[in-house]
Design brief:
Order of helices and strands: EEEEEHEEHEHHHHHEEEEHE
Largest sheet: 5 strands, mixed, barrel
Number of strands: 13
Distance between the termini: 95 Å
Structural class: alpha+beta
Radius of gyration: 34 Å
Shape: extended
Helix content: 10-25%
C-alpha cells in the first residue's frame, strides 16, 4: 500500500513521458468526461468513439477516440508530437472489461466515502482512478489540512486487495477533474486541454483593462481565470510601445497630457493641461509622430557637512560618602 500524501497535480496517471513522432494523430479520452490527449497511430480507418489500446508507462490502457487530430504533412508535420501511441484496437473481452472498469471505479468511490464517514475524516473525495490491469487504485481528495489516512488505507487495501494510493489535490485540480462549463459557455479549459497550470495574477487583469470584480474574473474554482494568461503577453508588448497615462507629449507644437489608452484599437486619449474638457483621441499613426517629453530631473540638494560633536566630559566622581562610620579620623 502507498500512504504517501502530496500536492502533486493529478495529471493523468496514464500519460506517457516520451513524445512520439506520429504517422497519423487522433484525439483520445481515457474516461467519458476526461481530458483530451493526442495519440499517434499507424492503424488505418480508426473511427470516432472506437475503443483502442494505448501504450502507457504502466502498460496498456483502453481509451476512446474523440476525433481526428492535426495531420503531419510537409515540413511542419515533422514538428508534430503526440503524447501517446495507439497500439491496437480492443478485442471483445477488453471492451467488456473497460465497461466494467468504469462501474468498479464508481463502486470504489462509494466504498471509500463510507469509510471516510465512518472514521470521521475531514476530507472530500473527488475521483477514483483504477488501472486497467488492476495493479493500483488512486483516490483523489481535497482537504484544508494534512490528513492522517493510514487506517483508511488499511481498510481499502483489505477491501480491494491491491495497491492503494491517496493523493491530495488543490481546488484547481478538483475543478479540472470534475469538469463543467465556463462563463464563456464553453467547456472548462482546465478539463479539456490544459495540462500544467500557469501562474495567474491580478496584474494580468489590470493590464487588459478588465473590471476588478472577483465575480467576473474568477472561475468555478474561485481562483483567477486561466484565460487571463492567453492575451496578457500581447497586451504587454503593444502597451510597451504606447505613451503611458500621465505622460506629456507634443504634437504639432501643442503639448498634451495622455489620459488613457486602448490597446486593442491602439489609440490614446489626450487632454489639454489648461482645458480638461477638451479631449482628443489619437490613432497609432498620429501619436506615433508625437514627441514624448522627458521628465525633468531634479538634482538632489547637497548634503550639509556634519561636524563631529566633541566628546562629552565625564562627570566628576562624587564626593566620598558622608557617612561618619566610613570617615577616617
Amino acid at each position: 500500500m502507498d500512504t504517501t500524501q502530496d500536492m502533486t497535480p493529478p495529471g493523468p496517471q496514464t500519460e506517457s513521458r516520451q513524445s512520439v513522432t506520429p504517422d497519423r494523430i487522433h484525439y483520445i479520452r481515457f474516461r467519458k468526461y476526461g481530458q483530451i490527449f493526442s495519440a499517434a497511430s499507424r492503424i488505418q480507418n480508426l473511427q470516432t468513439s472506437e475503443p483502442v489500446m494505448v501504450q502507457t508507462d504502466h502498460g496498456l490502457e483502453p481509451c476512446i477516440i474523440t476525433g481526428p487530430g492535426p495531420q503531419p504533412e510537409g515540413e511542419q508535420g515533422k514538428n508534430l508530437r503526440a503524447s501517446f501511441t495507439i497500439a491496437r484496437r480492443t478485442n471483445r473481452e477488453e471492451t467488456g472489461k473497460f465497461d466494467r472498469l468504469l462501474e468498479r471505479e464508481k463502486e470504489a468511490f462509494d466504498i471509500c466515502n463510507r469509510q471516510i464517514e465512518k472514521r470521521q475524516l475531514q476530507m472530500k473525495l473527488v475521483s477514483v482512478e483504477r488501472f486497467f490491469n488492476g495493479s493500483k487504485i488512486i483516490f483523489y481528495f481535497t482537504a484544508e489540512n494534512r490528513i492522517d489516512f493510514r487506517e483508511l488505507v488499511k481498510d481499502l487495501v483489505q477491501e480491494f486487495r491491491t495497491r492503494v494510493e491517496m493523493r491530495q489535490i488543490g481546488v484547481r485540480h478538483e475543478t479540472k477533474m470534475i469538469g463543467g462549463l465556463g462563463c464563456c459557455g464553453r467547456e472548462l479549459c482546465c478539463s479539456s486541454y490544459i495540462k500544467v497550470f500557469a501562474p495567474v495574477s491580478i496584474k494580468m487583469a489590470k493590464a487588459q483593462n478588465l473590471p476588478l470584480n472577483p465575480a467576473k474574473i474568477s472561475g468555478i474554482c474561485n481562483r483567477l481565470l486561466c484565460c487571463l494568461t492567453y492575451e496578457y503577453k500581447t497586451y504587454h508588448e503593444i502597451r510597451k510601445n504606447m505613451p503611458k497615462p500621465g505622460k506629456m507629449i507634443t504634437l504639432n507644437g501643442q503639448t498634451t497630457k495622455v489620459l488613457g489608452n486602448d490597446v486593442l484599437q491602439e489609440t490614446i486619449t489626450v487632454i489639454d493641461p489648461n482645458d480638461h474638457e477638451s479631449r482628443l483621441q489619437l490613432t497609432r499613426a498620429e501619436w506615433g509622430q508625437a514627441v514624448q517629453e522627458e521628465p525633468k530631473k531634479i538634482s538632489p540638494k547637497p548634503k550639509k557637512k556634519r561636524h563631529p560633536k566633541p566628546p562629552k566630559k565625564r562627570k566628576k566622581e562624587k564626593a566620598k560618602s558622608s557617612n561618619p562610620a566610613t570617615q577616617q579620623p
